[in-house]
Amino acid sequence: MNAVIAAVGIMLILSLSRVHVVIALIIGALAGGLVGGLGIEGTLKAFNGGLGGGATVALSYALLGAFAVAIAKSGLAHALADRALGMIERQGHANGGKVKWLLVGLMLAVAVSSQNILPIHIAFIPLLVPPLLYVLTRLRIDRRLIACVITFGLITPYMFLPVGFGNIFLNEILLANVARAGVDVSGVNVTHAMAIPAAGMLAGLLLAVFVSYRKKRDYDLARIEQVEQVSVQYNPLTLLVAGLAIAAAFIVQLWLDSMIIGAMVGFLIFSLSGIVRWKDTDDLFTEGMKMMAMIGFIMIAASGFADVMKATGEVKSLVETSAQWINHSKGIGALLMLLVGLLVTMGIGSSFSTVPILAAIFVPLCVQLGFDPLATVCIVGTAGALGDAGSPASDSTLGPTSGLNVDGQHHHIWDTVVPTFIHYNLPLLAFGWLAAMTL
């Protein structure tokens, strides 16, 4: 049994059995380490050594949680929610459909923009989504739909558009690693190479929006009111300060490439302006950190899990074993490479970290099977992107959950991970294989 298959398989089975993801990651890492021959001490050493890799993101989320609570105090997001509720109450249920599509379109536009126009990635989710939960619930919108919309916006732009995070993934990681493995990519249009897989993502989004989750779903309004203030006093001054704080946080984040400093600057602006009273900062900070605590711990545990998998050395072994099964068949080869990419990325939780691992083995294999440079780039890029959606440890699924589960009515595995796996990984697998065979 390959250690990577054992670790990821056990982690996924436990997660689907409603064992908490942190516990599932720890048990999966221990199993993978033991199967990989690290022993208990070696496994724990690798796991503990990897924990620090997730600490930065976890702290970023804690500070973003505090910043999100401060924004809620200002009433900015609630002003938007009140406007939406006013439209519903003035024009009745007939207008509810319009508001629903406006909200869905807003979520999609902001998620897409967070990857290129304003590359803040998942930082917008705890700021935008929680204050709109009351409106989403009044409209009886299925939160699984919102999770699919946000995840689409977090993944598709970077795997298709060479701007912002897409420039990093497509040019600095994908093309660079394919070239480093010995293939001339000077004539490859990376957008052309990833167009068909991106179309698979779009097909999954349309299926989620218009088929799977188009029906209404009921949530408990009282539970939202307990954690998210529905009635907040606001005025032009508080809204102006909130706008300045958000702008300052985003500018600082882009300037210093640090969500931590950006969120801290935004929070300080609220404190200095008096919207958040100085004596209330401790309680507010604690409230925000509690809101994001689960996501932070999952990210820390996921980082340790990924380091155990790398320490076993069996990621390379898995790829090489798959190569032996291909038997010179391009169709079987493309499918196996995509499946291995899916398995590895679901365990590591990051497409950006997976591509360098896969490219070193997949590129020579693609050359041996007769794939041209364009198809090779497509295979490696799709294999790396597969698993980002649908992984319990990916920030593309943890991000939506952090915003949609503040009242405890959105399960990370069954309401985010499983829907995004079905609607994105399966179409991406099919469209990626089709692209590999036709490019």
Describe the structure.
With 439 residues, this protein is mostly helical. It has one domain. It has 20 helices and no strands. The chain has helices at 3-16, 21-35, 39-74, 76-91, 93-113, 125-138, 143-160, 165-180, 190-193, 195-212, 221-227, 236-256, 259-273, 281-312, 314-326, 330-348, 351-369, 373-385, 395-404, 412-438. The two termini are 35 Å apart. 55% of the residues are buried. The mean pLDDT is 84.
| DSSP summary, beta strand count | 0
Which regions have little confidence, pLDDT < 50, spanning 5+ residues? none
Helix and strand run: HHHHHHHHHHHHHHHHHHHH
Content-based structural category:
mainly alpha
Mean pLDDT: 84
How many H/I helices? 20
Q: Compute the separation of the termini in Å.
A: 35 Å
Radius of gyration: 22 Å
Provide the number of structural domains.
Answer: 1
Quaternary structure state of the chains depicted = single chain
* Beta fraction: under 5%
In one word, what is the shape?
Answer: globular
Helical fraction equals: over 70%
Biggest sheet overview: none
Short description:
The protein has 439 residues and is an all-alpha fold. The chain has 20 helices and no strands.
List keywords for this structure.
439 residues, globular, single chain, mainly alpha
Topology:
Layout: H1 3-16, H2 21-35, H3 39-74, H4 76-91, H5 93-113, H6 125-138, H7 143-160, H8 165-180, H9 190-193, H10 195-212, H11 221-227, H12 236-256, H13 259-273, H14 281-312, H15 314-326, H16 330-348, H17 351-369, H18 373-385, H19 395-404, H20 412-438
Helix pairs in contact: 1-2, 1-16, 2-3, 2-14, 3-6, 3-13, 3-14, 4-5, 4-6, 5-7, 6-19, 7-8, 7-10, 7-19, 7-20, 8-17, 8-18, 10-20, 12-13, 14-19, 15-16, 15-17, 16-17, 16-18, 16-20, 17-18, 18-20, 19-20
